[in-house]
Amino acid sequence: MSDFQKPDMRNIPTLYETEDIPAHGKIIYQKWEISQIGFYWLIAELDIKEKIAYGYANLNNDMFAEWGYISITELMDNNAVQCQDWEPCTFEQAQKIMKQKRSG
Q1: Has residue 7 got a pLDDT over 60?
Q2: What is the pLDDT of residue 1?
Q3: What does the alpha-carbon distance between residue 35 and residue 52 come to, in Å, rounded to a whole number?
Q4: Cα 19 to chain center, whole Å?
Q5: In Å, how far are 41, 51, 74, 99, 102 from 77, measured between CA atoms?
Q6: 102 Cβ partners below 8 Å, 6+ apart?
Q7: Is the pLDDT of residue 31 over 70?
Q8: pTM of the model
């Protein structure tokens, strides 16, 4: 079973389901990363059928990181991996976790 087909993915809100929740309060259900180059994606919403997510993308540059739509297929095609130890948390908490991880 690939990472994308895990049953726990059904708990992730569908696209647009959290659009009324401010970014800092959105729950981040998954983290995907290419750790060798410092890229990561934080997933808040997911369309399982279309393999499209909505989340926060940081391509090793906090200044240009942004919210948007993310193709899970493209992540997998580019060898991004889903972090298996990720625990759902608010985006605000996720940012703190990522800052701590980067600072050592």
Answers
A1: no
A2: 39
A3: 21
A4: 16
A5: 14, 12, 5, 27, 25
A6: 38
A7: yes
A8: 0.90
Exposure string of 3-41, with b = 16+ CB inside 10 Å and e = fewer, is: beeeeebeebbeeeebeeeeeeebbbbbbbbbeeeebbb
CA distance linking residue 71 with residue 17, whole number of Å: 18
Q: What is the number of domains present in the chain?
A: 1
Q: How confident is the model at residue 3 (pLDDT cuts 50, 70, 90)?
A: low
pLDDT digits (tens, 9 = 90+) for 40-77: 999 999 999 999 999 999 999 989 999 999 999 999 99
What is the residue range of 79's domain?
A: 3-18+25-103
In whole angstroms, what is the distance from residue 31 CA to residue 29 CA?
7
The 3-state secondary structure of the chain, one letter per residue = CCHHHCHHHHHCCCCCCCCCCCHHHCEECEEEEEHHHCEEEEEEEEECCCCEEEEEEEECCHHHCEEEEEEHHHHHHCCCEECCCCCCEEHHHHHHHHHHHHHC
